[in-house]
Structures are given as structure tokens and as C-alpha cells.
Amino acid sequence: MLDDQLKRKSKKNRIRGIYLLPNILTSASLMGGFYSVLASIDGNYYAAAVAIFVSGVFDCLDGRVARLTKSTSKFGVEYDSLADLVAFGVAPAILIFTWALKPFGRYGWLAAFLYVACAALRLARFNVQVSTVESKRFTGLPVPAAACLIAGTVLIMHYFEKMHVAQHISVLFFIYMLAYLMVSNVQFYSFKELNLSQRMPFMLLVAAVFMLIVIAAEPEVMLFALSFAYVISGPVLYVVEKRKWVLGKFGNKRPTKIVDDEKQK
Fold first, then answer.
1. Where are the domains positioned within the chain?
2. Distance between terminal CA atoms of the chain?
3. pTM score of the predicted model
4. From residue 137, how far is each of 33, 64, 186 by CA, in Å?
5. Are 184 and 235 in contact (CB under 8 A)?
6. Which residues 6+ apart lie within 8 Å of 228 measured at CB?
7. Which one of 115, 136, 177, 229 is at 20 to 30 Å from 238 when CA atoms are compared?
8. Class of domain 16-232
9. Which are the contacts of 146, defined by CB distance < 8 A and separation ≥ 6?
10. Which residues lie closer than 8 Å to 54 by C-beta, 6 or more apart?
11. pLDDT tens, 34-67?
12. Can you give the three-state secondary structure of 187-238, one letter per residue?
């Protein structure tokens, strides 16, 4: 009887505990976002942008490690969402506001707030739909991808030595576009099918090494290019699939007016 009580107590304690490794990685991602906020306030925009990419690396690792070690938990999911909101919602919003949107005044901080709000909505929708939607695709632009594009824009401008961006309406449009894509129904590839623990073709390893060399050679250019390519892939895929659907439904049908004219002849 005493043994049964001890077993139940031990099981209850295990349930109340948390998995340490994935949550440490999530904390590292959160710390990167917090540092990015401090760097943006100090005017060190390059360091703020790099910190967002570092957070992105840890954000990718925590989910992978949790799945590989079978240490996923509801606590981990909720903690990851809160960390993502800071690292990829608040941090890039403050970065883009202090770097480029401040001259717009009220319209500038409202655009930054819209980005944060849409990031929060995107994360909340993902948590609700995580067990019901297709794992191959994300519905809406992932928040880390939007943040990386903002950070990549800062890095590419630093590369071309144009850190002081003049007031231009395109910056506002850029933020509105990212905010819309996050809450839209546009599908983005999730890369969840890429299982790194399984055997892969040898040439895939060669391609990965080559990609690392290219990124190391021109990190600012490549990080921006990769972020931009992923963000634009969703709308491009949406247009292509929409075109296929239209051609499939109406491609073999002739206009009604031409058919009526031929019947009259």
C-alpha cells in the first residue's frame, strides 16, 4: 500500500515537472529577442538584427530537440509562443520603428503596433490549429520568418552603407505587407518533413556545406536573400495554385457567347 502511494506521488511529481533542454533553448531565443530590444534602443541596429537571427536559430533548435528527445509538452508550446512574441514580434517592431519608422510619427508607431498585434494573432491561431491543420504547410507567414526579413533588411542596408534610411512610404507598405501575410490564409512550406535524424542522399550534404560557405562569404546578402525568398514563396505559390485551379475549371470550356454564335450558324 505504501509502495503504491509512493509510486503515485512519484508519477504526479514527474507530470508536474518540465523538460529542461528544449526550454533552455527557448530561453536562449527569448534572451536574444530581449537583447535586440536593448540594442535597438541604443541605436546599435546591426547588433539588434543579428540578435534576431540568433533567436531564430535557437527557435528552430528547441522544437527539433523536443521532437527528437520526445520531450514535447503543453508548457513548452505555451512558453515557446510567449518567447516568439518577444523575439519575433516586439523586438523586430522596435527595431524597424527606431531604425526607419520614427520619422513617420504616429503612423510609424501604429504600423509597428500592427505588426506586433498580427504576430500575436498569428501565434494564437497556430496554437489553436496546431493539431488540426496540415503539418506540411503553415497557414499564414510564420512570425520568425517575418522577423528575419526585417532583420535581413537592416543587414543588407548596412552592407550597402545606408543605415540611415530616409522617410519613405515604401517602409510603411513593407510592414503592412508582413502584418497582412501573418494573418492571411496564404500557405507557406513548413520544412517539418525534413527529418535530420534519417539517412539522406550524399549530394544533400554537399549542397548544405556549399550553402554554409556562401552564407559565410556574404552573410548580410544571403540572410536577406533567403528570408525574402521564403516570404515571397507563399504568395507566388498561391498565385500558381490559383491559376491551376482556374485553368482546371474553365480551361476546357468555351465562352458561352461563341457557343451560341456557332449554334445560330
1. 16-232
2. 96
3. 0.82
4. 26, 17, 10
5. no
6. 149, 152
7. 115
8. mainly alpha
9. 88, 92, 115, 119, 178, 181, 182, 231
10. 32
11. 999 999 999 999 999 999 999 999 999 888 888 7
12. EEECCCCCCCCCCCCHHHHHHHHHHHHHHHHCHHHHHHHHHHHHHHHHHHHH
